[in-house]
Amino acid sequence: MSTVKIAIITGANSGIGYGVAQRLLDHSTKNSNEQFKIVLACRNKTRATDAQNALLKEFPGGLVEIVLVDLSSVKCVFECCKEVKKRFSRIDLIFCNAGILPCSYIDWWVIAKQLVFSPTALLSRTDALVQPVGITTTEDLGETFACNVFGHYVMIRELENLLIKTKDSRIIWTSSCTATKEHFNSEDYQAIKSNVPYEASKRMTDLISIKLNSRLNKHDIYSFTTHPGVAATNIVRDHLGWVMGYGMQIGFYAARTFLGMRNQTVTNWNGSYSNYHVATQPIDLLKNDYVKKFCSYCNRFGEAYVDTDDIEGYNEVEAEVLVNKLDKLLDEFRVKYNNKS
Ligand SMILES: NC(=O)c1ccc[n+]([C@@H]2O[C@H](COP(=O)([O-])OP(=O)(O)OC[C@H]3O[C@@H](n4cnc5c(N)ncnc54)[C@H](OP(=O)(O)O)[C@@H]3O)[C@@H](O)[C@H]2O)c1
What we know:
By secondary structure, the protein is an alpha/beta fold. The chain has a single domain, classed as NAD(P)-binding Rossmann-like Domain (Rossmann fold), CATH 3.40.50. The chain contains eleven helices and ten strands. The strands form two sheets. An eight-stranded mixed sheet has the order 3-2-1-4-7-8-9-10, with helices on both faces. β2, α2 and β3 form a beta-alpha-beta unit. NADP nicotinamide-adenine-dinucleotide phosphate binds next to α1 and α8.
């Protein structure tokens, strides 16, 4: 019998999130016994509707809905979750994918140095984008933390009861290979003082995913973390402008073809492969790898595949402390907004 799985994808109107929606709809057309209903969780109604229309044009008859949410606002996430609970009695998948990489300016000196001494770093890292320090939301949270981490955490905790209703439900975090342990400071867990709040947010993503997995396993809920490789999406292109953005994309293709750099996935479709893989593989093939990161890679000819990488220096105590802080913060917001989950 065919089951329709409900998949919420944050930031699904562009980039990797859009690629995940395409892949799940493509999967639905090819597997009559496993259908997906896609819920595009986006902050902008016009962009969300454009994405919905484009998906339905590519996959006529596909099941695609929209729910509006600004993940940087806890109030908004609470409202979104109320709406989701009204519409659905269960959920199979939450893709915690939306993300920002704020940039104050481009450091041309870094670009010049990397061009000469380490062109591969230039094509894989974001060192040249200088991130602003100390930006907070109207709710006094670190902005990147709020959007990339806490908004998703609130969503998961609010929707936990719907995830419990399905067997092998999955939480899938789009992380990054730049999420290394030195970027996270437990004392400044909202990364307000950090000059790399993006990298800190992705490190937190990895810690939270592993911790949530062990907490939620008893309910048959699994949490995984992924890396999309290096894809030419808006998250960096918006800071570079049209000309540099396309120059970057050509550089990615060249690096993959001529240097064999397997992390250069370049397109949404290839970049989203690891998320799709984790969403659709039998859980028995995945569940022992929850302490690893599922990464999208490509060969020289642009064929995507998935491999796992270690999450360096995972520290159980550090993860526990972080998740406890998030729970405490969530409780404060529940009181503030009189939100009964
Ligand atoms: N591209 C890469 O090479 C790469 C590498 C490593 C990790 N990642 C991760 O992949 C994820 C997706 O990014 P992308 O590369 O696909 O970039 P993207 O095209 O810019 O997608 C980001 C998505 O997040 C949404 N978003 C941002 N802030 C939001 C908020 N406050 N509330 C709700 N939605 C919000 C954006 O919506 P709007 O369109 O409204 O702005 C957009 O849909 C991110 O978590 C990113 O860190 C990407």
